[in-house]
Specification:
- By secondary structure, the protein is mainly α.
- The protein has three helices and two strands.
- Helix 2 packs across helix 3.
Length: about 80
């Protein structure tokens, strides 16, 4: 956890969950600029997409290596993180 860190720019994929008027107010109060990527273009968010892929690959490898059941997927992702 980081403290006293200011987010200068927040890049979003137009998913809808962060497009409310209340969230706009929060961003403005904190001096954060919002950037919206083009719809269906994960290439514009390469760092996060690569991290997600790496976490999924690690979780999958752990489950297979230990012969664990799929219902432990969330725990494996948490552990990989």
């Amino acid at each position: 956890m980081q403290h006293n860190v200011r987010i200068k720019t927040l890049r979003l994929d137009r998913g809808g969950e962060y497009l409310s008027a209340d969230f706009d107010v929060l961003l403005k109060e904190n001096g954060t600029k919002r950037e919206l990527t083009v719809h269906d273009s994960p290439q514009q968010n390469g760092v996060a997409e690569r991290l997600n892929r790496t976490l999924v690959e690690h979780a999958c490898a752990m489950l297979i290596a230990q012969g664990l059941l799929k219902y432990l997927w969330a725990k494996a992702i948490s552990h990989a993180t």
